[in-house]
Amino acid sequence: MDPRWLVAAWAVAIALSDARWRRIPNALTLGVCAAALVVLALDGRSLLGGEPWNVAGAAAIALLLTVPGWLTGRLGAGDAKFLLAFACLSGLEAVLITFAVGGLTAGALALGVLVRVPTFLYHPGVDCRRPLPFGTCLAVGMLAALVAGGR
């Protein structure tokens, strides 16, 4: 079985969790990250074929892209762990594709919310603090990276 199908199923499971509950379970991020590192140590390549140096670079970039957002409260820790786990499964190219497509998806989602509810900023009954499910947007980016064949 092609491992991309497993990674895609994992990304969809996290996307659904984040969209529904705005929460990404640690078992689905840290557990997969640990398993990915075991595969990397035993096989010398990531599950999707990335070299160890490529995976290390991908993990560093994933942290550089997400930790500042988490520290400032603009991004959930689950989102950061989700991208880190994907970095351990894949490699640098896939992480960059994921973050770029995920960011564009989040922007489109935010615009969709603004167009659909243009008065939400002025309506006292609407909770504007509920965050957008960025993990779901990252999952869209991951699926794009898997289709593009990035490692």
Automatic annotation (TrEMBL):
<dbReference type="GO" id="GO:0004190">
    <property type="term" value="F:aspartic-type endopeptidase activity"/>
</dbReference>
<dbReference type="GO" id="GO:0016020">
    <property type="term" value="C:membrane"/>
</dbReference>
<dbReference type="InterPro" id="IPR000045">
    <property type="entry name" value="Prepilin_IV_endopep_pep"/>
</dbReference>
<feature type="transmembrane region" description="Helical">
    <location>
        <begin position="83"/>
        <end position="111"/>
    </location>
</feature>
<keyword id="KW-1133">Transmembrane helix</keyword>
<dbReference type="Pfam" id="PF01478">
    <property type="entry name" value="Peptidase_A24"/>
</dbReference>
<protein>
    <recommendedName>
        <fullName>Prepilin type IV endopeptidase peptidase domain-containing protein</fullName>
    </recommendedName>
</protein>
<keyword id="KW-0812">Transmembrane</keyword>
<keyword id="KW-0472">Membrane</keyword>
<feature type="transmembrane region" description="Helical">
    <location>
        <begin position="53"/>
        <end position="71"/>
    </location>
</feature>
<feature type="transmembrane region" description="Helical">
    <location>
        <begin position="24"/>
        <end position="41"/>
    </location>
</feature>
<feature type="domain" description="Prepilin type IV endopeptidase peptidase">
    <location>
        <begin position="5"/>
        <end position="111"/>
    </location>
</feature>
<feature type="transmembrane region" description="Helical">
    <location>
        <begin position="131"/>
        <end position="149"/>
    </location>
</feature>
